[in-house]
Design brief:
Length: about 350
Amino acid sequence: MSSMEHVAPPQPGEVGAFETTATERVASVDDLASLDALVAELTGKRSPFALWKRSLGGLAHGDRRAIGQELNEALARVEALVESRRALLAAAAREVLVVADRLDLTDVVATPGAGHLHLVTQVREELEDVFVGMGYEIADGPEAETEWYNFTALNVPRDHPARSMQDSFYLATGDRESYLLRTQTSPVQVRLLERGTLPLYAIAPGRVYRRDTADARHLPVFHQIEGIVVDRDVTFGDLAGTVETFVTAIFGTGIATRLRPAYFPFTEPSAEFEITCTICTGSGCRTCGQTGWIELGGCGLIHPAVLEASGVDPERWSGFAFGFGIDRLAIMRHEIDDIRSFVENDVRFLTQF
Ligand code: DAH
């Protein structure tokens, strides 16, 4: 049929016949893309319906009303049919996806026998190996901490925003001392200093908690690794050399390190350490905000107030500390674009590492 024929109004019975064909064709279409194409053909701008409607203007008033109404009703029935067909096909397409993704955990043949360590654990163990190789001990601390260890002994001011209920998970223990889920691994520094065994070379990896909404770059529960060194005459140069050593051990020699002035209450002077962006290797991209550098963590020379709070004489001892996110480091090394993948436990993700 050429479109010219339809500029004429429909002949008696023609709308009905077209509706019958349309109904059959809609019912026999079996995928969404074909349905879309068919809808365009049946009801679109160049469809018989559209052309017939255009012809109405040339009709006498009575005919125009009657034929117009006939067209509208037929069109509405065809459209209703299309929508129910669309719902059916969409449900079928979803079902195909669900079946394709199904993993039968009771099928011991199809599921892999042995698992392996999570990427974050693998990276933590690599970091531990690097530091043990440099003579550090591996330390541990509680995840439910007191405000004293998490903030006060670390020289964090009383009114610091990090202390607020909005940023930290406080625990309703009923004790006079406030407890919270530690927001950083830095409180382990204080616990180590309190032991009074010096010199001290230690790292403390572990879980930390913040009241953050999960997104591509944040999780409310994540992992940090803290480092602390206290000895005679420790300098900023020792700190810079240490940072450089473990960055090279983890990322290889192609990745450079730099320190930038920053502020942390527990160190003075303080710095943020950055590494060459692993995505663009320094040329600038979206991930690094076109700077070519990515922040990995914080560090500095331990503030005398922190040493004093733990009973260490700052006149006799000095030290440095650093802390950074293990998950963050893993993301950068493996170019993972969404940190939430670490907690989704999708085997297709986990088995890549
Ligand atoms: N605790 C800091 C944080 O969570 C990181 C940090 C910065 C740790 C400087 C340090 C340090 O030991 O010296 O953001």
